[in-house]
TrEMBL record:
Lineage: Eukaryota, Metazoa, Ecdysozoa, Nematoda, Chromadorea
Protein name: Uncharacterized protein
Pfam families, A to Z: MaoC_dehydratas, MFE-2_hydrat-2_N
Stretch forming the signal peptide: none
Keyword line: Lyase, Peroxisome
Gene Ontology cellular-component terms listed: peroxisome
Length: 373
């Protein structure tokens, strides 16, 4: 049975008032690639996330969780009484406000926004805001909900205005399903890729102390897999279309098990849940991903909105390999809010795209196909 051993009182007001000095996280393309490998990227399908000189190379959007792991931990947070052996990662929200640079340095600020008394335990809600150190640009916001078993009934609030609710899973069959196996070394890879060095995920003795028979996969690693599945199914594997993701961790995953992500297109966002195929257990529940709904025009390719789905050519076929960062910058600069638009450009070939009520015309004698589903 899991329980908290310390009797030190919780001082929620003090915890919410405390502010730590922003923490720096320096990274290179190698770190971004290590993270991509740790959440299952494959060279044949995901070259733009694994090769620094690939056309349109970019870090995966969920790489932003790495600086959160480096930040000062809850164990030393004033006003809290945290026992890491009994702390479970319950929920995660990630929102990007700007593309993650290929390499550079982050500055991250962390604060406690609330601590809820759930009776059987305490729910600690933290928020991490990350900035690009060189430009000062606000890159991302994360909300992390951690549940400490056995630390409830301290007289705190039961609800919070800061709660970010997950999505209700539709009753109909999933629109798309992607199945992918994890490796038996997935937890070891993720420790290096994301910097989460919690011994629970590698040391059998530490896992037993926490109530598990063997080390379990990081919840954020499972989220990384699920995020890739949604991007592959609904965004042509283009991570630049990622806006936000919310997940609830419902059950642990063992390294080597097979993940099965069920996805529904709900108009403004993609709702999903992830199960372990071998057991049928839901491991990520009430998840959703928000995708950018604006049209993006880059030199050589476009994504067109039609019935909340993206229609487009493969971006890796069009971006100049020697100008990948320039291509990304130009693509992000050309954004339009209307579905009906006309654009023209001259590169090595002449092309004209015009859209009228979601219909795509041909480019260089090749027709952009509309989705069949």
């Amino acid at each position: 049975m899991r329980r908290a051993f310390s009797t030190v009182a919780w001082d929620v007001a003090r915890a919410k008032q405390h502010v730590f000095t922003p923490v720096e996280y320096r990274y290179t393309t190698r770190d971004a690639i290590m993270y991509a490998l740790s959440v299952g990227c494959k060279a044949k399908e995901d070259l733009r996330y694994l090769y620094e000189d690939a056309p349109a190379f970019m870090p995966l959007p969920t790489f932003i969780v790495a600086p959160g792991m480096k930040h000062t931990g809850l164990r030393r947070w004033p006003g809290l009484n945290v026992d890491m052996r009994h702390l479970l990662h319950g929920e995660q929200y990630v929102e990007l406000f700007a593309p993650i640079p290929a390499e550079g340095a982050f500055l991250s600020e962390k604060r406690i926004v609330d601590v809820l008394d759930k009776g059987s335990g305490a729910l600690i809600m933290t928020e991490v805001t990350t900035y690009d150190k060189s430009s000062g640009t606000k890159l991302a916001k994360q909300q992390i909900c951690a549940f400490q078993v056995g630390s409830g009934n301290f007289g705190g609030d039961r609800t919070s205005s800061h709660t970010m609710k997950g999505a209700d899973i539709p009753k109909r069959p999933a629109d798309k399903i992607i199945t992918e196996s994890t490796s038996e070394e997935q937890h070891a890879l993720y420790r290096l890729g994301a910097g989460d060095m919690n011994p629970l995920h590698i040391d059998p003795a530490a896992a037993r102390i926490s109530g598990f028979s063997s080390p379990i996969l990081h919840g954020l690693c499972t989220m990384g897999f699920a995020s890739r599945h949604v991007l592959k199914a609904f965004a042509n594997n283009d991570a630049s279309l990622f806006k936000a993701i919310k997940v609830r961790f419902a059950s642990p995953v063992l390294p080597g098990q097979t993940l099965e992500t069920h996805m529904w297109n709900e108009g403004g966002r993609i709702v999903f849940e992830t199960k372990v195929k071998e057991t049928g257990k839901t491991v990520v529940s009430n998840g959703y991903m928000q995708l950018h709904q604006k049209d993006n025009c880059a030199i050589g390719f476009s994504y067109l909105c039609c019935k909340n789905e993206y229609v487009g050519a493969d971006p890796e076929k069009f971006v100049n390999p020697g100008r990948s960062r320039r291509g990304i910058a130009m693509r992000d600069a050309w954004k339009f809010s209307n579905v009906i638009w006309t654009g023209a450009f001259v590169c090595e070939c002449w092309a004209l795209f015009s859209v009228l009520y979601g219909s795509a015309w041909c480019c260089d004698k090749e027709v952009l196909r509309m989705p069949s589903e």
